Amino acid sequence: MSNHKHLRVVIEDIYANGNRLNENLALKLVNEFRYSNLYIAAKKENDTLNFITYEYNDMKLTALFTDHDEFRKFHHEDDIQLLQNSFELYQNILKTTDFDGYILNPASEKYLFTKEFILTITNIPKTNFYTTDAYSAGELLDIYRNVDNRYLEEYISNPKNVGDYEMLFERLANSTILTLMVSDMEFDNDIIDLREIGPVAGMYTDKVGGIYVTIFSSTDRIRHVNTSKFKYAQLVNLAMLVNYVLVEDLDGIVLNPDSDNVLIPRSVLLRYSLGFERYANDARLCEALYYMFALD
């Protein structure tokens, strides 16, 4: 569960800068806030759920919280509910109420987000990557068996390309990307339907210096990973995966860990996130997360 550590670091940096927003801090704040899933307190009165408001410097505000602990620091009543929502909903609340803004973590940071600031934020991230025209299990298996990312692998093998994220993302957007699923159980099937057998596998993450989702250009690169668990491959919609990393407050992505080790930090993903939505979003892969494949 996200505790919005990256958003809180940005707010710490703003306070360290005398509570002044320069261009760099403003961009970081907007990017982190757009992908947040903050909590809001509400109280049920006469079968209606109402947000709790406060008067602060002649402004009508409601509080947002980064996590349950921050909520409990401020509220001790038993009849108050905590609701988690995307940034888009909080923006819409300000469009339809007389609230003047939000106060974040009133028992800690007490950071004020004014209505004017929030309503200027555009390019709201997608919250739905699904389509009714998803690839079938058989189509996914065919795609998996025909993965050929030599175009990408040639690029990342050249040391001169290190740090050129724009070109790297162009290559990624035109590739068929895999992720590694690991399990304590061994399966003989070519394709394993997780909806039938249950949550028996999890995505492999790299936890050196943070939590990084891992992606792969081939099953050969997957085999380089050192783990005692059984390995399976899974196709991914790259746009959906990037959104997951940002919304879940993870630290970034590693391409081909234990071989090429191409690190893509969170700050870079935030900068290019809308590009992934536009150019790396094969919506028909939306049900690929339900299937994993034996390594060829």
Q: Strands, helices and their partners?
A:
Elements: H1 5-16, H2 23-34, E1 39-45, E2 48-51, E3 53-56, E4 59-65, H3 68-74, E5 80-84, H4 87-96, E6 101-104, E7 111-114, H5 115-119, H6 137-145, H7 150-156, H8 165-173, E8 178-183, E9 191-193, H9 194-197, E10 201-203, E11 205-206, E12 212-215, H10 219-223, E13 230-235, H11 238-247, E14 252-255, E15 262-265, H12 266-279, E16 291-294
Parallel strand pairs: 4-6, 12-14
Antiparallel strand pairs: 1-2, 1-4, 1-5, 3-4, 6-7, 8-10, 8-13, 9-16, 11-12, 13-16, 14-15
Helix pairs in contact: 1-2, 8-12, 11-12
Question: Can you describe this structure in just a few lines?
Answer:
The chain is an alpha+beta fold and 296 residues long.
Describe this structure in words.
With 296 residues, the protein is an alpha+beta fold. It has two domains: 5-119, Trna Endonuclease, Chain: A, domain 1; 137-294, no CATH class. It has helices at residues 5-16, 23-34, 68-74, 87-96, 115-119, 137-145, 150-156, 165-173, 194-197, 219-223, 238-247, 266-279; strands at 39-45, 48-51, 53-56, 59-65, 80-84, 101-104, 111-114, 178-183, 191-193, 201-203, 205-206, 212-215, 230-235, 252-255, 262-265, 291-294. The strands form three sheets. Strands 1, 2, 3, 4, 5, 6 and 7 form a seven-stranded mixed beta sheet that branches. A hairpin with a 6-residue loop joins strand 6 and strand 7. It is globular. The model has no long low-confidence stretch (mean pLDDT 96).
Give descriptors for this structure.
7-stranded mixed beta sheet, 2 domains, single chain, 5-stranded antiparallel beta sheet, 16 strands, Trna Endonuclease, Chain: A, domain 1, alpha+beta
